[in-house]
Specification:
Distance between the termini: 66 Å
Largest sheet: 8 strands, mixed
Number of helices: 20
Number of strands: 17
CATH architecture of the largest domain: Alpha-Beta Complex
Helix content: 25-40%
Strand content: 15-25%
Number of domains: 2
Radius of gyration: 27 Å
CATH superfamily of the largest domain: 2-enoyl-CoA Hydratase, Chain A, domain 1
Amino acid sequence: MAIKKEMLEDLERRRQLIAGDQSKIEARHAKGLMTARERIQGLVDSGSFQESGAHVGHDVRGFGFEKKVLPGDGVVTGLGLVDGRPVSVISQDFMVSGGSLGSRHARKMAETMQQAIELGNPIISMNDSGGARIQEGVRSLAGYGQVFRSNVLASGVVPQIALIAGPCAGGAAYSPALMDFCIQVKKQSNMFICGPEVIKAATGQEAPLDQFATAEAHASVSGNVHFVAENDQDALNIIKRLLSFLPSNNMQDPPHQFSEKLSLELDYGMNEIVPEEPKTPLDAYQVIERLVDSGEWFEVKRDFARNMITGFARIDGMVAGILANQPKVKAGCIDIDASDKAAEFINFCNAFNIPIVTLMDVPGFMPGLAQERGGIIRHGAKVLYAYANCTVPLVTVIMRKAYGGAYIAMGSKDLCADVVYAWPTAEIAVMGAEGAAKIIYKKELANAADPQAKFRELAEDYRQKFSNPYQAAESDIITDVISPAETRYKVALSLRSLLTKRVARPSKKNGLSPL
């Protein structure tokens, strides 16, 4: 007996309703925006998306909602494949009641994340919502609690990537904040806790959205956003690129692409990019460009704390996280923002089995009253904690300056590193030669006939004796002194050798990182 035609027609009618009103879809296209479903289709492999909860409806009692149909309760959820790898996807639908979050909307999100934990799938959450559905009252707030808890349970188990593709206000902003990476689209999106009206009412300040809620503001000032996208399609491309460097979960290794034979060639061009004068800043990007495989560098938080560079790369096919001081910005000093940026990146790499390569050229922590009052001690301690907590392979290259506590913090051997190489230009010391000479030779300088000439002489003497890598090598504080030309193959060889690293740590519920 064949199924009744009316039943099939009813199913098709319902599917058409779920797919969305064509006039609303055309209105979004006119603004250059994708729909919630189009974002999913643009991300996952063709035909691979399996939706769940498509027929879920809202749970609003009163306010005229009994006559309204909210397809999927304003969110599309399900499973798909990205380059053949399973992912769990959440995409809020602004065309349905402004993408507002109701209790069933939240339950769909939470269930998707819980399933992702069980399956070991990365979570991709596309945010485009006006916020809590006021008509549901406290139940919508309870829904946010379920979402946040799911974010926390997934933390460190599977990678979590948030896309801010539209409005993301109030409590809604905390789910992206709890995730590992946040991508925000220019012009079409905003993310904030309190809007301009609330800020003015509470403080009297005029605060236009472009000062604190845009992609540019979050990427460069607040540090809430890791990547800025030009449009929806660019955002989807960033997600795919990011996933190409990440394992699906914390039980897997990253997607290495090992070459059949490790290259041991010297790169003499690396020697040429090192300035002859110690006070001329080295451009860390030039070092990274020569160190990593061609086309295999993907920077994270490029516009925030630019004195610290972080990103993913492949070195002879092996995935690694790269951290580098950038001497061309603030002389490469570690300040509050750079500390937070570094610690966040280190913690992620360690959670997901990604080896870390550190390129060190650091004169110290940033001096200044604002830094001290702002808590540079507390923030700098985050970097120390993150490195010392690592169990993944750690390779450090000391390029030039390596002074004081900042030297210890940037992946030194005594703190954490498995292998530490130093270039002949490395200056490993408690402080710079000039500062040390003023302290050590205070009496000699005070009694000198020509204090300035004597100071230059004593500073140079200190530099020759202590500001070089060989004293550190003699003390087994570094692994070896290498020429810059050897850097790429030495790092690649070390990473390969450390692949089997296993570290046992004392049993504890959780560590207490400085916050």
